[in-house]
Structures are given as structure tokens and as C-alpha cells.
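Human: Not sure, check this?
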Amino acid sequence: MHHAVMTTRLATALRIHAQRFPEQSGLADDYLKLLEEDVHAFVRERLDGHFTGSAWLVSRDGTRALLTHHRKLDRWLQLGGHADGDVDLRAVALKEAEEESGLTGLTVDDAIFDLDRHWIPERGDVPGHWHYDVRYVVHAGDNEAFVVSDESNALAWRDIAGIAGDSLADESLQRMAKHWLEQHASA
């Protein structure tokens, strides 16, 4: 799909997300400002910050999320990664989920699930920088037998209610878990 169409689609999705989740509207505004930089904002070479795409990968029954123990950051996190010039962050989230989990038959929601801007510390010759992470819900199919990739120490299906109540979990993981439970409490 044409680049301009995809950036317009992302801008629209960010505005809708800001309306649905007012507590993230200021963050969405910051993301929209970054988006004005166009394709430059989607490459890791933009050292003051760039877009990344992540997956809140949920089990078919919606009670568990697949997390990765990130080798570089040494903590349990959602699957995801750099856009590397791809302006379709939804597709980035799906691709990263497939690559990092080895799972097939995954599907991704259209709407943005969460925004999280986080600092990545200096590493080697790469200075510290911001990740403007856009997270999408990715649904597992029947197959939940993941394969650990080079980027992870381990993968694990974790109970979402457990993540929400785990004070030691990454703050953004707790937020997504609580958000998921709120959305699916009536289901």
C-alpha cells in the first residue's frame, strides 16, 4: 500500500486511540508530531527516537499472553521490534510476533491497543534513544507451540490476570493486562 496512505491511516488510528483512551492522548499527540517527520521516523538510525511495533499476543481463549524474556534488556516483555522503514506498524507487530514466536495462524486487530514511549539505554556504539512503541492485539490460533528465536532467552504463556497483579512486572505490561481484562470482563 502507498506510503502516504499508511501514514494517514496511522495518524487516524492514533487520533481514535486518543479519543478512546484520554489518558494516552498527550502521548498520541507526541506520536503524531513524530509522524510528521515522515519515513525518517520509522528507521532506527533516527537516534533521538523512532517508531517500533509490538504485539500483545493473546491465547485463543484470551486468558494468557505470550511474553519474551528479552536478551538485551533482561526482562519479560511483549513481542515486538523495529519498523526498519515500514510505516505499517500493524504489519510490523504481526511480523515480529510471527518471527519471535514461530507461531502460525496469527491475526492482528486493526485498532491500536496501547502506546508506550520508553527509553532504550546506550549499548555499544548506539546512543540511548526513545522507542515510540505502538502496540496491537495479536491473536493466536489453534497452535500455541512457540519456538524460541535468537532474540529471546525464553518465551512463556503467562496468565493475564497474573500479569495485571504482578507489581514486579514491567509497568506497561501491567497496564496492558489491566486494559485487556477491563475490555473483556463483560465477555
Strands lie at 50-58, 64-70, 75-77, 79-82, 107-120, 129-139, 152-159. The radius of gyration is 16 Å. The chain has a mean pLDDT of 90. Helices lie at 3-20, 25-35, 89-101, 160-164, 171-184.
